[in-house]
Amino acid sequence: MHVKPYVIAIIVVLSCLALGCAERGLRVFPQQPDAWLAVGGFKLALFNNEAKQGSLLHIYLDGDGRPLVGPEGPASQNATPTNPLVLSMMLQDPAPSIYLGRPCHFYLDAVACNADLWTAGRYGSVVVDALCQAVEELAAENQMPVALVGFSGGGALAVLVAGCAESVTHIVTINGNLDTKLWAEMRGFLPLAGSMNPIEIGLPDRVTQRIYFAGGEDTVVPPEISSAFEQAVPGRLVVKPRFTHTCCWVSAWESLLGEAFAGVTPAQPR
Q: How many domains does the chain have?
């Protein structure tokens, strides 16, 4: 892999996993990524798991973080996620894997960043184009096709990025916001006027492996969202009955990886 491991982050996250604190929302995200990737006027944070053997590069996209202060606003000044759930999942993955930060997460550029990029425009073309460029650069540098793994709002972005990143052949979503119109209606929110709706975009034919995980007790992105998307964009829908939006994905991720990547050449042990 091209980025060095951030040892402190690994120690902190693994300690948190042992104590079960990751799913209780403690703020243990590392302050500094392993590296930065400059694309589209943004600096995107990169964390990696140091795995070197495998046939598919797994790129993880996190959720929306904290776009608003309170359920109805105003916009937060920094939407960077404070729960390390997705980073914890990435660190468990035996395949070569990278956590790719979203634009304006971890680094707020005074020129490029504005609140629209993490509120109404969180799934808009500016964000998607930057992530698309980043995914293509990482795929070329690591000389592998890509599986996008997206959690919550990161699932929405995984679908949208798959449409423009030719390197993407696999997609895995976890509680993905895959129909933003239905989600807004179910939650009583205003539509995301500056964003694209994944269910209206779909997935290209080259994305041959598609799995949509959903928590049966998720009230943030209800499982009906993933079900509606699967009906429109056929894949494999897996609803975990007792799982919520954040529980219990970290503790189950090792086994869920087997479901997500069945048929893919397994990575060698590190």
A: 1
pLDDT at residue 170 in the model: 98
Q: How far apart are the first and last CA of the chain?
A: 13
Q: Is residue 220 domain-resident?
A: yes
Sheet holding 35-39, edge to edge: 35-39, 42-48, 97-100, 57-61, 146-151, 168-174, 209-215, 236-240
> Is it the case that residue 124 has pLDDT exceeding 60?
yes
> Nearest CA to 81 among 5, 152, 27?
27
* Domain housing 203: 7-260
Residue 210 lies in a domain: yes
Q: Maximum distance among all alpha carbons in the chain?
A: 47
**More confident position, 142 or 12:** 142
Pick left, alpha or beta for residue 263 (phi over 0 → left; psi -120 to 50 → alpha; otherwise beta).
left
Asked whether residue 53 is assigned to any structural domain, the reply reads: yes
Percent of the chain with pLDDT over 70: 85
By DSSP bridging, strand 146-151 and strand 42-48 are: unpaired
The CATH number of whichever domain residue 89 belongs to comes to 3.40.50.1820
Q: Which two tokens stand for residue 247?
A: 């529980």
Per residue in 13-43, pLDDT (tens digit) is 333 333 333 332 223 345 589 999 999 999 9
Number of neighbours of residue 188 by Cβ within 10 angstroms: 8
Within a 10 A sphere around the Cβ of 45, how many other Cβ atoms? Answer: 22
Within-domain flag for 198: yes
